[in-house]
Request: fold
Amino acid sequence: FQKTPEIYSVELSGTKDVKKTDKGDGKQKYRGLKNKCSNFRKNDQIEEIKEELDLDDHKLSSEELEKRYGTNIITGLSSARAAELLARMGPMPSTLPRRPRDCQDVMCLTFPWRDLVLGSGSLLSLTPLLITQVYLGAVLALVVILTGIFAYYQEAKSTNIMASFSKMIPQQALVIRDAEKKTIPSEQLVVGDIVEIKGGDQIPADIRLLSSQGCKVDNSSLTGESEPQSRSCDFTHDNPLETKNIGFYSTTCLEGTATGMVINTGDRTIIGQIASLASGVGNEKTPIAIEIEHFVHIVAGVAVSIGIIFFIIAVSMKYPVLYSIIFLIGIIVANVPEGLLATVTVTLSLTAKRMAKKNCLVKNLEAVETLGSTSIICSDKTGTLTQNRMTVAHLWFDNQIFMADTSEDHSNQIFDQSSETWASLAKIITLCNRAEFKPGQESIPIMKKTVVGDASETALLKFSEVILGDVMEVRKRNRKVAEIPFNSTNKFQLSIHETDDPNDKRFLMVMKGAPERILEKCSTIMINGQEQPLDQSTAKAFHTAYMELGGLGERVLGFCHLYLPADEFPETYSFDIDTMNFPTSSLCFVGLLSMIDPPRSTVPDAVTKCRSAGIKVIMVTGDHPITAKAIARSVGIISANSETVEDIAKRLNIAVEQVNEWDAKAAVVTGMELKDMSQEQLDELLANHSEIVFARTSPQQKLIIVEGCQRLGAVVAVTGDGVNDSPALKKADIGIAMGIAGSDAAKNAADMVLLDDNFASIVTGVEEGRLIFDNLKKTIAYTLTKNIAELCPFLIYIIVGLPLPIGTITILFIDLGTDIIPSIALAYEKAESDIMNRKPRHKKKDRLVNKPLALYSYLHVGLMQSLGAFVVYFTVYSQEGFRPSTLIGLRLEWEKHSVNDLEDSYGQEWTRYQRQYLEWTGYTAFFIAIMVQQIADLIIRKTRRNSIFQQGLFRNKVIWVGIASQIIIALILSYGLGSITALNFTMLRAQYWFVAVPYAILIWVYDEVRKFFIRLYPGGWWDKNMYY
Amino acid sequence: MRRQHRSRRAPTFPHGYRYRLDDQDEANQNYLADEEEEAEEEARVMGVPNGQGQPTGNTWWQKLQLMNEYLWDPEQRMSLARTGQSWSLILVIYFFFYASLAAVITVCMYTLFLTISTYMPTFTERVKPPGVMIRPFAHSLNFNFNVSEPDTWQHYVISLNGFLQGYNDSLQEEMNVDCPPGQYFIQDGNEDEDKKACQFKRSFLKNCSGLEDPTFGYSTGQPCILLKMNRIVGFRPELGDPVKVSCKVQRGDENDIRSINYYPESASFDLRYYPYYGKLTHVNYTSPLVAMHFTDVVKNQVVPVQCQLKGKGIINDVINDHFVGRVIFTLNIET
Reply:
């Protein structure tokens, strides 16, 4: 596997050289993996697909093809046969298969809740003896249905955004049928159709090219190769993916025209097969789904165990079994946070919305959090880390290397432009260039203008336009008289111009090309505007500069010129480019210019942020190791002061073998090396190097890398744009597709789409994801707390026999009424500290709901809340006549409908309905008490470690909206709907609203004390047990 | 294996890019030393290299073992992932936490009761207007009995006799005072002073007193039913207009009940029995009664009867509450 730097430094318009290398290892790229296939099962499938492509159409001659598909190259299929084939094979889907996004997905999120709530609900309906309970069952069922619909609606909304992304314009194909050219929708194409394509078209099916005029296609979505590939009708390679005479469905024809025969349609196209493979790769559960499941297990565990304990207690206390079952259900209902599903969904979709504003479009709501727990990002290079356009990075003239501005707008070109040499170089750059701006773009900034021409020439054109102004005008003044375009044998481009100096009748010959080729042709070199003979020392300086620029992974071009003497070449001289009747040697070397696809200016910052956030950024690229490494260094994926094994070897001047592998922090691994690695070696590599660049990898190897990372227990984010990336995107914990460059298949497989293809957006996403995890923790802590206050009454009711302090309907009004907006408001809470300065959470250790959270919520704040609520309850009952001593054990008599003269502590006699009404007053009072204390709970949940006063009581305005909503809903329930008996609310005396306030303050003070000790003894016993 | 590849790869790097590294060699050394620890930590967090991750057994047996170990880990002498010391610490902390919570609650409840009078309820609006109840009462408001079969009505008689024990003339005369009728029996003085109660003698009920007819008319198919108004502390009927009782057929033929005798004949609760001062001080208070003697009711047929209180300040048409100011029961007297 030999590569020479020159391949990467010389590249004008052709892709021949790259192609050659690609061809060289291309087969191995796809086939070679076979050796290790036993280790990589998933990849094995991909390989199988590659192998199973028993596509041999590219090997056949056109006559054999005609025979095979029963068609005629000139006249095409007959309409009748096409119709028959269409009927047999089915139409070709106009878009690739979408990821199923129906209600099943919603079920995934809602299922556990459904299970719990519905379970209790249906149990309730099983007790038809008690009409009120059936009524309750209906309410519960309604709650379940409504929250389900709500969640679905939220999901559907984000799916809709996605839908708008796919290009729904039906594609047309120009097809020859019955010897006539017809335009038909491309899904009606059948095998054997003869289609014509031209530049700009998307290829409508897999086609075998029959004729081609300068046809080039962009296969990047399929193979990841970003260079345009030329297509011809020659069979050049055994592998159908490599041969030049096959055009693939969904790739784009960039320029030229071609005629081809359809050989595969629909799912049988190569892209169709890969896409269907992607849907076969198992979709892992998202971390947040796992966390929520874990949480449900905890809640269900608590609910069921308490329920069963009290069932046994109730039975042993001689309650009828039926009553005991109802108690059991009541306990479960009190324990299930019915509103949490809606809250979580809203919280996630709020974040999704926020992220969409920052160019991260989240397709799968749960993926919002996944990004936050990401510990490894496998990023593409081209387009994601870089700007995806060649840009002039360095210049070398006057024996000096100058740096050009590579930022997105090129605005700041600071190198010394006073030298005469620069003037000459600028002229060559301007003149020896065939690229042109498309007309009608005057108002667009230069860097955004569309250019006709290849990447390098575009770079040069824009560079010179920025520095010199109107290039076209310069070219007009220096009329071109002859031109030799670039070709891969010459490796140079040459043109001859008249000069713009009317007194100077000489012609100017300008030339650019591979630096060493250019240097060969030169005998002099221009230094400070003066021609000097090219001697050993200047040649050495040239080589040093060339190697240095090459070592930066840049593509280097040499520039030279020659003023043709006016006596030999008079104004009328006719230049013949075939016979080359002009000198092409003894030229004057002017300078070097190197180009690179520069990193986006925001990326280094983003990578640093990732690093401080404990996220490992791995670059996976199909590009050459040197370029990859250079970009990795410049964006900080390989930090400035870490070395690879090779670097150490070079520094110590020893052989690579002698270097201790583990001394090197960074590693650059090529696809070839990766291919020879065993699974263990890959694991070791991933675990031991903190900075890794994978270069020259096939998109398939991306999948191997992702799986390797996942074996380490990491949460892996993968960026990708090609169809071939889609299995890796799917396999990853979170697949991130590129919104601009990405193919539909990639976008479909991904969980998230970066609208600006910018790596920095991922970091924003990570930040949001981490914040949402923290805030969900707060939300859940907030929600769980009141469960105890809802549960205790029931337990006391069973054991002590008090009249029921709070009814099930009332509990639902807390869970789904007063508590909803506040718990959503917690999603707006700002981070307590710099969340980007801590390590990603550990999947197994840092749970959403951990022991301290549950204990603190249940046994500390929850208990305080219950006590506070009970005090209110006792206050109400005592003031109305029932003192606690009377209430104990009163339950049976209290609930008897026939007892209408029940005596209270003062000897007064109560009818059943009067007692009932008092009970509802008790419910309302208990409800208000919980609500008041939940306000305190909400405030304390704003932070987990910092004091509320550090966080700022008023910074999160939504919290206050939440508090206001709580109070308003409670007021409405008590005073507005107090007369509706079915809701079990009554108008409560104003003073009862304030009984619980001291307890609310107590909760706040207690929590401040807790946080104070946590801050005082970080890592101490208190911190470990009380920090959630 | 990797190294061999490196050797092959090495020449592919041009010499040119050395320049950067050379300058930074020194920094490298320091940096690497610093980072080593971190890298180690990272590796640990990743949980792979030492291979001590959670055992991933799927079988029940393994799970059971894990659970067992969690409950009691003999090696580290830990139960539920806590050592004995840790347990005692946490228990002590919880003990103090709950003890102080209990103290807070006790203080609160104590203050609460300081503000609430033991003699007078703070609010009485929930128990007003007064409810009504009848005797005899045995779980049901449907009076079904057969005149000729004493077994079917004997329990009514027993119940009434029991209920009226407290109204025996001798007892009433001994315990209570005979106060003037037609006016409130207001007893000023301190809340906590014992209050006297007015006599309500069993003999006031005449034919329904069970004194003359020990079967309260059940043996003759003319049942007596006693009606009492629920006690409410401080409740006073309108002055000069005592609360009256009137019964009629609730649904159906008005003539199903041809006559009712009320005892006392005024069919009302005399004002002297009001106000009520609460059971703590008004110990011997006996609720006044009105007896309804259904002397002529259609036999062998269910007759729904509604008895209402009438008077100012009395509400007898609350939809949800069938016992406020009224009572509905059925009579089915078989012969």
About this structure: Chain B touches chain A through 83 residues (CB under 8 Å). Residues 84-115 of chain B form the longest helix (32 residues). The longest strand of chain B covers residues 289-297.
